[in-house]
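The instructor's notes for this session suggest beginning with a concrete chain rather than abstract definitions. Hand out the sequence below and ask the class to guess, before any prediction is shown, which regions might be ordered.
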Amino acid sequence: MAIAVRPIDPISRPDFAAEMTGIDLSKTLTEEEVSAIHDGMTRFGVLVFHDQDLTDESQVAFSRQLGPLEDAISDLRAVKERRISMDLSDISNLDQNSKIMARDDRRRLFGLGNLLWHSDSSFKKVPAKYSLLSARVIPETGGNTEFADMRAAYDTLDEATKRQIHDMICEHSQIYSRGLLGFTEFTEEERRQCTPVHQRLVRRHPVTGRLSLYLASHAGTILGWPMPEARAFLMDLVEHATQRKFVYAHAWRRHDLVIWDNRVTMHRARRYDAAKVRDMRRTTVSNEVSSLEQAPPPF
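After discussion, reveal the predicted structure:
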């Protein structure tokens, strides 16, 4: 089958979110297939692949063909509590025995931060490039994932705001994002792991040169600004960036594999019945360089 890519909304969002067919991700990819995926990500930011029945091993192998992987170390699951490889993030409501977590389980409460708009690993010095999420078991209703196009969000800002934010640096930390939901019970070791990092607010794509907003619920302040003013300003930017005209909502089907580029998107999970199993696995390709190294050209 020939490789094909189709915009999901060709009228309103012809260059954001597309379905790709003609590639079996469970097999070793050809150079042509790897190039097609990278090209699709460069244009669309989000690629959807249906009917990809992956094992953990095949997902990791496929993901490694797109770049070096991050270790999954950001979900408060101790090694002895993990049920899958450190190469994968356990995006589920299941404990190490594959039982649904209790409503007040701190691992579940921490994971509720995924309901906030964010960019994966923006709290790391070298943040994420691609995220690849595989749907293994999904509830009958709910649990969509929404994606916001941060390129379009930047393009539609007024010139004065673009000039104002051009060189801004933000601090990102999971301590801040989880605190928004009232989750503050971190151990001292967890707090050390969540030391804030600096990220640019405006990023330049290394291939296209296109500028985008780099926002996340992890962004708690702007360097040089009083914290209340910075947080109010960032909230305004998130509100602008997540208007419905910029957002694609993915309704999951079993064996979907969705890839998104964290450099040009934000995303969030939506609610589902917590008494139902939702079992998904994410691999994450590292960006290899800090956002500070992807500076926009002089304004």
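Then share the key points. The domain at 4-286 is CATH 3.60.130.10 (Double-stranded beta-helix). The mean pLDDT is 95.
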